[in-house]
Write a structure and sequence with these properties.
Blueprint: E1 18-28, E2 31-41, E3 47-50, H1 57-65, E4 72-78, E5 87-90, H2 102-109, H3 111-129, H4 134-150, H5 155-165, H6 182-195, E6 200-204, H7 212-224, E7 229-232, H8 236-242, E8 245-248, H9 256-259, E9 274-277, H10 280-314, H11 330-361, H12 382-385, E10 391-400, E11 404-412, E12 416-421, H13 427-435, E13 442-447, E14 453-456, H14 471-479, H15 481-486, H16 509-521, E15 527-531, H17 539-548, E16 555-559, H18 563-568, E17 572-576
Helix pairs in contact: 2-6, 3-4, 5-6, 10-11
């Protein structure tokens, strides 16, 4: 595959800038998210930010960008002369209004480059008017150097390269951004961030909505970026090929004395970070080994603590407490009593000292890790109930004008299908037809009688839920009180128990998506449709979900750009082509 190469934007500080995070902590009410987080991101070394959903990745990126204040700690940018630093943050909200056209949004991003180019013209005119003026000559040389360094002369070429590289080249520039699809708006937001050429680049899930070509373009761009790059991503293949190091926010072994108040169910909260130099694949193995050592050390320490506590309790006498000295003489009795008291005191004090030292230094208990319990965890009998024969869903020349070219597909009961294709090929649209959420403008779609179809879409299915209600209350409203009692939210291993009493609006994007999956699986459908199921999910959950699909007794259709998932896919495969213009 050929990847379009972008001339890497050059910021004012370029490779001289460094990002330092020092002791950052942040809480939402009583919920601790980040605790004493410290690390450095050097220029020219793209760094991946990983951790479970809700571990604080998005919060940390907002704090670094200055959008949110930490409870404690500082963020520093090391640049020559203390010059102002421009920080670029890609997050969930587009940086342009729905009324702006694509051209308007792009021009907003490159406005500073246009200003640099105009400054050169102004300086050139001033120098032409006063060719002997040294200040005019110096100003012209300075603006010319700035234009060359920032690429201001190539701005139009850069715009075309970025838009084309991210799959937006065919969109009319006069189209309002409010008329773009969700995926197109996300890609335009990424383009806007790259075109600003900030000194420090912060990206939150940048590969969502990107196809292979766009991911290749972004990966090449980040590897050549001259300033610090820090990004949170669920994309394992992208992490493998792009980062030079990783920062993991998940909990690590720490003394219990400093973390005792943070211990709870679920994933817990980390203190500090784990820094790893290398690829994601290498880190997975390293982390597994580290977790095993942590659990073994904790078990050994707890056993030693039990022994020392027993020793403190039992070692109050020496020899045989009921046996007196050989002689009954008063002096002998006093001698033996004094000796016993001295030895007992020494032994008890020694045991107490060892116990106090170990209690002070003992490591925190490894918090329980969330583990997805499967697609049919809510119904042990689902394995038999979901099995059927014959076609489950059939599409015959089904199409949606402008969104999906005619496609015919027969999904047999129990089959597993993977839908792939470039952005705009209609993967989400086809899932919408199979689910019944959309109607075809051509052809037909048929679902076998008696089969229920359930879909996890890319959009937030909780958008209409009250963000001030607790997670548990929203779950009851969605699945019904009777089913919520029969199938508690904790059944699935998707959310920590403590999160059920939090406000829905306090959950991260990944946690909300976990919640949406749990609500869908509370009554497992016969036909399960998953649209980009690894988007916003943690790396661990994405892997567990992928492993669960092949063994699912029902029918499953998955649409995904995820290259890691595609490499291991064993089921049926349908590749879609974009409809002709």
């Amino acid at each position: 595959m050929t990847t379009t190469q972008l001339r890497t934007p050059v910021s004012a500080h370029g490779a001289s800038a460094h990002l330092t995070v020092d002791g950052v902590s942040c809480s939402y009410g009583t919920h601790r998210v980040l605790t004493d987080v410290s690390f450095t991101v050097p220029a020219g070394r793209p760094t991946g930010l990983i951790g479970e959903n809700g571990s604080g990745k998005s919060t940390l990126l907002r704090i670094i960008a200055g959008v949110q204040d930490p409870d404690a700690g500082t963020v520093r940018f090391s640049v020559p002369g203390g010059s102002p630093v421009r920080v670029g943050l890609l997050h969930q909200e587009p940086p342009f209004s729905p009324a702006e056209t694509v051209a308007d949004a792009v021009e907003t991003a490159v406005r500073h480059l246009r200003d640099v180019a105009r400054a050169v013209d102004d300086a050139a005119r001033a120098l032409a008017a006063a060719p002997q003026d040294e200040r005019a000559a110096t100003a012209y040389a300075h603006t010319l150097e700035e234009a060359e360094r920032t690429g201001a002369w190539d701005v139009d070429t850069t715009i075309s390269t970025v838009l084309e590289g991210l799959g937006l080249g065919g969109i009319p520039r006069d189209r309002p951004t409010g008329e773009l699809s969700g995926g197109q708006r996300a890609r335009l937001s990424l383009a806007w961030t790259l075109l600003r050429a900030p000194d420090v680049l912060l990206l939150d899930e940048p590969t969502n909505h990107l196809d292979d070509a766009a991911i290749g373009f972004l990966s090449a761009t980040l590897r050549e970026w001259r300033g610090p790059v820090l990004f949170a991503s669920h994309d394992r293949a992208f992490l493998d090929e792009t980062v030079t190091s990783l920062v993991d926010l998940d909990p690590t072994p720490q003394p219990h004395a400093t973390t005792g108040d943070l211990v709870g169910d679920g994933t817990g909260t980390g203190i500090g970070v784990t820094r790893f130099s290398g690829s994601y694949s290498q880190y997975v193995l390293s982390r597994m080994d580290a977790r095993e050592r942590w659990e073994r050390t904790y078990r050994d320490e707890q056993e030693r603590l039990r022994e020392l506590r027993a020793a403190v309790k039992d070692q109050h006498t020496v020899g045989h407490a009921g046996r007196g000295p050989r002689t009954e003489a008063r002096a002998a009795k006093k001698f033996y009593a004094d000796r016993n008291a001295t030895v007992v005191s020494r032994r008890v004090n020694d045991a107490r000292a060892r116990l106090a030292e170990l209690e002070e230094k003992q490591i925190r208990k490894p918090p329980a890790e969330l583990f997805f319990r499967g697609l049919t965890a809510a119904d042990p009998a689902a394995e038999h109930r979901l099995r059927a024969s014959g076609p489950a869903v059939t599409a015959v020349d089904a199409s949606v004008e402008g969104r999906l070219a005619p496609v015919s597909l027969s999904v047999g009961a129990g089959e597993k299908w993977l839908l792939t294709g470039s952005n705009g090929a209609g993967k989400s649209t086809l899932l919408g037809l199979l689910s019944g959420r959309l109607g075809p403008t051509g052809g037909s779609v048929h679902t076998a009688p008696g089969l229920r179809v359930g879909m996890l879409g890319q959009d937030d299915t909780l958008a209409t839920a009250d963000p001030d209600s607790t997670v548990a209350a929203v779950y009851r409203n969605i699945v019904g009180t009777k089913r919520a009692e029969a199938v508690p939210l904790g059944t699935f291993g998707l959310l920590a128990g403590r999160d059920e009493n939090r406000r829905l609006g306090e959950l991260s994007v990944g946690q909300r998506r976990r919640f949406a999956l749990a609500a869908l699986l509370a009554d497992p459908p016969h036909v399960l449709l998953l649209d980009e199921p690894t988007n916003h999910f943690s790396l661990v959950l994405a892997t567990q979900l992928e492993a669960a699909v092949p063994d699912h007794p029902g029918t499953a259709v998955v649409a995904s750009h995820d290259r890691w998932l595609r490499r291991t896919w064993k089921g049926w495969h349908l590749h879609l082509e974009a409809p002709a213009e």
